[in-house]
């Protein structure tokens, strides 16, 4: 049989492992190479994870909120939803007013319909 070229199996690392590796490599005086070697991963992979953490692409669970903060956050979301709904209602009313005024302008008597000349001031 033919020999397989390349890695036999690609490992998938979990979020917790990646964040722990980044945390270990971020300690003062610790080299990325040493941390990567101790975790049996390539230093480039650890550098990539560090960049993802810096860019906000790789984040852990958000810290638990205090009950008061959670209530404020819920209230903020409710207010945002209400604001969006009111904006939609406002836009709809503006369209209805525009439609009604256009319709009224079309249906108003003109000189052709009444046969009387329109007076100008």
TrEMBL record:
<dbReference type="GO" id="GO:0003677">
    <property type="term" value="F:DNA binding"/>
</dbReference>
<feature type="coiled-coil region">
    <location>
        <begin position="69"/>
        <end position="96"/>
    </location>
</feature>
<dbReference type="GO" id="GO:0004803">
    <property type="term" value="F:transposase activity"/>
</dbReference>
<dbReference type="Pfam" id="PF01527">
    <property type="entry name" value="HTH_Tnp_1"/>
</dbReference>
<dbReference type="InterPro" id="IPR002514">
    <property type="entry name" value="Transposase_8"/>
</dbReference>
<protein>
    <submittedName>
        <fullName>Transposase</fullName>
    </submittedName>
</protein>
<keyword id="KW-0175">Coiled coil</keyword>
<dbReference type="InterPro" id="IPR009057">
    <property type="entry name" value="Homeodomain-like_sf"/>
</dbReference>
<dbReference type="GO" id="GO:0006313">
    <property type="term" value="P:DNA transposition"/>
</dbReference>
<feature type="region of interest" description="Disordered">
    <location>
        <begin position="99"/>
        <end position="121"/>
    </location>
</feature>
């Amino acid at each position: 049989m033919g020999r397989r070229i390349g890695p036999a199996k690609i490992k998938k690392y979990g979020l917790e492992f990646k964040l722990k590796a980044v945390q270990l490599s971020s300690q003062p005086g610790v080299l990325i190479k040493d941390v990567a070697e101790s975790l049996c991963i390539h230093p480039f992979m650890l550098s990539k994870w560090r960049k993802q953490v810096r860019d906000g692409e790789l984040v852990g669970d958000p810290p638990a909120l205090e009950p008061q903060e959670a209530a404020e956050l819920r209230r903020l979301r409710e207010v945002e939803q209400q604001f969006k709904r009111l904006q939609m209602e406002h836009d709809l009313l503006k369209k209805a007013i525009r439609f009604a005024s256009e319709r009224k302008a079309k249906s108003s008597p003109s000189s052709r319909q009444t046969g009387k000349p329109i007076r100008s001031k």
